[in-house]
Design brief:
By secondary structure, the chain is mainly alpha-helical. It contains four helices and no strands.
Length: 86
């Protein structure tokens, strides 16, 4: 499935994209797709870690989940009442 990606870039980047894609005989779409893949592989080689492995265990808490939910609900209710009244 293809999606539309919209980003703002400076004019010099657009000119470089057009010039490089033309020199390589690629469409701008293909050039950008390949650039993204190359950059991702480069990051992997340089030791970029998997986001999921880095965040695993981030939600381990000493309190039971029900306590966390209750505290969050109380904070939300308090903020709601402050802004909207009863």
């Amino acid at each position: 499935m293809q999606k539309i990606l919209s980003v703002r870039v400076d004019e010099s980047s657009i000119e470089e994209l057009e010039r490089s894609a033309r020199q390589l005989g690629l469409s701008k779409k293909r050039f950008i797709e390949e650039a993204i893949r190359l950059r991702a592989r480069e990051a992997e080689r340089q030791g970029a870690k998997d986001v999921w492995s880095e965040t695993r265990g981030a939600w381990k808490r000493r309190e039971p989940p029900a306590s966390t939910v209750r505290a969050a609900r109380q904070a939300f209710d308090k903020a709601f009442e402050r802004h909207h009244g009863k």
